[in-house]
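User: structure tokens for this one?
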Amino acid sequence: MSSIYKSIFEAKLDARLEELLINMLRYNSSASVQEPIRVFLYNYQVMSDNFWEMYKKAKSYEDVLECYYQFSKNQCVIIETLLENLRLTLNKDQLKEELHLLLKDAFTF
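Assistant:
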């Protein structure tokens, strides 16, 4: 489990975002929560690398601001994707648990 924490720290996220992810794992550190976070961290790394490539090619402050604006928009998109993935995962886990209880009740005499 420590590797997910290490991945979060190594991603060089905004301090608030890092804190949110760590707190999220404190509440639920199951593999079904860790996997969407890993996907998020991968996407964040790709997005961050892309930002720095574009930043190095910027020829004016407008270009720099446009790079940062695009980075911010992309960050919102991947956060929304993380939230949706977590909702789907947690709903699926809850549904599995409910089905398990239903089947248990149905076959218990």
